[in-house]
Amino acid sequence: MSKLTILEFPDPRLRTKAQPVTVFDAALKQLVADMFETMYAAPGVGLAATQVNVHQQLLVMDMSEDSDQPIVLVNPRILEKSGEQVYQEGCLSFPGIYADVERALRVKVAAQDADGTPFEREFEGPLAVCVQHEMDHLAGKVFVDYLSPLKRSLLLKRMEKKRKQSA
Ligand code: GNR
Ligand code: NI
């Protein structure tokens, strides 16, 4: 297993649209294992392949207390969404900044597992936030895109300032 490097804003590669996974081989399973290792070490509760510069439709999540409920979604698609919720989001590609984002409360997703077996699953609450946040990464979208231009520039300036201080 190896820990991967997480791309940070304003890296333009975060804007790449991921391609569907077509080959379910040992290399894919290794990538999934490396993404979990990277996510748990960060620490984070989700990670999209885009963030580790792999532009394939693959994401991992684990929002459980004991980090023992790993979820892998390959080629995820949202079938249905309903309700709304506001949740304070952070992102490993935007260290140190947090902002409220409004998203659907429930999402029903069709995806494949790491073997290519299709399944459907519903997510609600924080898990639904995380799925939508990670699926956005696969489309080249990031959580600050939802903020007003004023709020976004304020937060990004704050992030730059912190980065310079720690450099
Ligand atoms: O670790 C993460 N925490 C988080 C908190 C609130 C909403 C979304 C997230 S996802 C984030 C990890 C990450 O950047 N995934 O892309
Ligand atoms: Ni993120």
What's this, in brief?
With 167 residues, the protein is of the alpha+beta class. The protein contains three helices and seven strands, in the order αβββββββαα.
Global geometry: globular
**Mind telling me the C-alpha Rg?**
16 Å
Ions, cofactors and other ligands present here are: ligand GNR, nickel (II) ion
Please estimate the helix content. Answer: 25-40%
Highlighted features:
alpha+beta, Peptide Deformylase, two-stranded antiparallel ribbon, 3 helices, 7 strands, binds ligand GNR, binds nickel (II) ion
Describe this structure in words.
- The structure is a single chain.
- This protein is α+β, with helices and mostly antiparallel strands.
- It has helices at residues 26-41, 126-138, 149-166, and strands at 46-48, 58-61, 71-82, 85-89, 99-103, 106-112, 118-124.
- The chain has a single domain (12-166), classed as Peptide Deformylase (Alpha-Beta Complex).
- The strands form two sheets. The chain has a five-stranded antiparallel sheet, with helices on both faces.
- Ligand GNR is lined by residues 44-48, 51, 89-93, 129-130, 133-134, 137.
Secondary structure elements and their pairing?
Layout (H helix, E strand, L loop, with lengths): L25 H16 L4 E3 L9 E4 L9 E12 L2 E5 L9 E5 L2 E7 L5 E7 L1 H13 L10 H18 L1
The structure holds ligand GNR and nickel (II) ion.
Ligand GNR binds next to β1 and α2.
